[in-house]
Structures are given as structure tokens and as C-alpha cells.
Amino acid sequence: MKQAAPSALSMPTQPKGQAVSSFKVTKKLQPRTPGAQKLLQRFGDALVCVRRRVAPEGEARCTTVELVLEQVPIRSRTDQLVGVQVGYGEKALQSQVKAAGGVWDLASRLWRLPQRTARRLGLSDRVRALQE
Questions:
Q1: Which of 80, 89, 104, 127 is the most buried (most CB within 10 A)?
Q2: pTM tops 0.90, yes or no
Q3: Count of Cβ atoms closer than 10 Å to residue 22 Cβ
Q4: Burial class of residue 13 in the structure, from the number of CB atoms within 10 Å of its CB (0-12 exposed, 13-18 middle, 19+ buried)
Q5: pLDDT-derived band of residue 4, with 50, 70 and 90 as boundaries?
């Protein structure tokens, strides 16, 4: 029977009953500084930083690395502007819409604001089509 090849990212065992996140960070190293060179060779440009940590009682220490696993472009979300109908006498609601970035559109006699904001304010039932 063949043995599996050791993983390139073999993980050392941590002390029993201790989460590494509870260890205190004593040193943070950038990838190209002395003390991080071997890890830079191992992980390449994916290496963000190296941290040296010590257990709260001081009986153990460990080295952790921060790696970039994925990098994707951010697609900006364009939020569609909608018209919101607010009555003339609803001054408090008008103030709320204005504070949320709403702009009065005299031609359509509606408040213009992003659809997401109208939904967040609970005004979905007041949304009307805007005249362009």
C-alpha cells in the first residue's frame, strides 16, 4: 500500500486545550524582513505577514502566517434611483427621507433616492416610477 505524500502545508499540532487565537502577539513581521524569509520562500507573494505568538501563561509559542487566498475585482453596485411619494403634510417623513439623502424632484413631485435606501426606510409601498 502506498503512503500519501506529505502536504506542502503540513500543519503543526497546537498545545491541547489552547486556541492559538488566545496567544498574545509578540512580534509582527512583514514578508521581506529578517525572520520571515523562509516563509516568504515557501508561500511567495501570497504571504501578507508573519506573527510570533506566546501562550498566556508563557509555556508555548507559535508562528502564524496571514496569506492571500483569493483576489477578485470588486464590481460596483449601481443602486437604481426611485421616486418615493411623501404627502405634503408628512413633515417628519420628509425630514427622514431628506436625511437619508433624498432629493426633491419638482417635475415628478416625488423624492428621489436609491431603491435600497427606500427599502431600508420601509417605504417600498410608496415607490413610484420616475419620469426621465
A1: 127
A2: no
A3: 9
A4: exposed
A5: very low
